Every structure is written in structure tokens, then in C-alpha cells.
Amino acid sequence: MSKLKAAVFASGAGSNFQAIIEARDLACEIVLLICDKQNAGVIEIAKKHQISTFVFNAKEFASKQAYEEKIISELRKKEVSWIFLAGYMRIVGSTLLQAFPGKIVNIHPSLLPNFPGKDAIAQAYQAGVNKTGVTVHYIDEGIDTGPIIAQESVAVFSKDTEEALKKKIQEVEHQLYPSVINQLLQTK
Ligand code: GRF
User: How far apart, in Å, do the first and last CA atoms of the chain sit?
Assistant: First the structure.
């Protein structure tokens, strides 16, 4: 039986994208990278792994609806059924949400509902918490507000620099995301 097809949406360096595509025994095939930043590092990773990319500039479209319709047509061409956001720095709109109900998942570097939005690691570090972590959740129209699928905590020690904390969180992300993807696909 051929594997389900999925796309990753990313805007940045792409370490989570890389962890997903290099994961052993991933239950789906990543057939497309969607990226909104021309020079994002993640594009190079896709090229290296011969994964198709669709790179767009939101400013060239009249509206969020217009660029999301274009994205949907790219996803349909590749027969994508799941979408995994990995550092995609845009709020997903109703056009995409309605086209893929219950099939869009995100990873966020905090224990939601704590520290939603940008710079979650810095927010947690500056707040002086002794525990933060990683959340994988479904997407809704809010910012990091959709139903939580899985969380893993990361201890913050007083000797930790912000950089060290970021590294610990990324290590957790790179294990957690592929494993949650597999759990999701096995139960659906
Ligand atoms: C990750 O920390 C992810 O949780 C957040 O954005 C970051 C992306 O990093 N949503 P990378 O591009 O995968 O390295």
C-alpha cells in the first residue's frame, strides 16, 4: 500500500523539516515543501532531498485567500492529505482550514497555552520558569490555540543560557514531531 502524502509548511531554517524527512519509518511521504520566504534555509534542505517546493511571496497576491487558493491547488496536484507546519510564520486562514479540516498540525516551542506567538523560547526564558517544553497541536484560526495533541516538557536550570535552552527544546522537537505524526496517521 502506498503511503499517505503530506506537505510541510516552513519559513525558516528548517531543522524540523529535516528531522521529519530524515525520520526512520515515517508513516507518510513528504511530497511538498511550502515556503513563504525566498531565501529560507529550508529550501536548500528540500532541494538536497529532492522534495518539490512551492515558494511564494504573499505580497504578490491580492489577499490571504488568493495565496491560500494557490497553495491548495499545489497541494491537490501532489495529492496531499496532511499538512505539518514547522516554523511557518503566517496565520493559516479559513480558506486553507476549510480545505483540510482536522488535517493541519503545528509544532510550538512552549507548553501551550503558556507563551504562544513569536519568540516563545525567549519569552519562557525571560519569565524565569523552571519548566517549558514543546507542544504539537491542531491548527485553528487563532495563534497557537488549537486542540493539543502532545506535549513534552523540558527543564530549565539556572545555569542554562537561552541558547542552551533553545538547543534542548529543538532536540525534543526533532524527536517528538515525527513520532506524533506517526501516531496520528496510524489512528486516522
Ligand atoms: C521551531 O521551534 C518550531 O517549534 C516553531 O518554529 C521553529 C522552527 O524552527 N514553530 P526550524 O525552522 O524547524 O529550525
Answer: 15
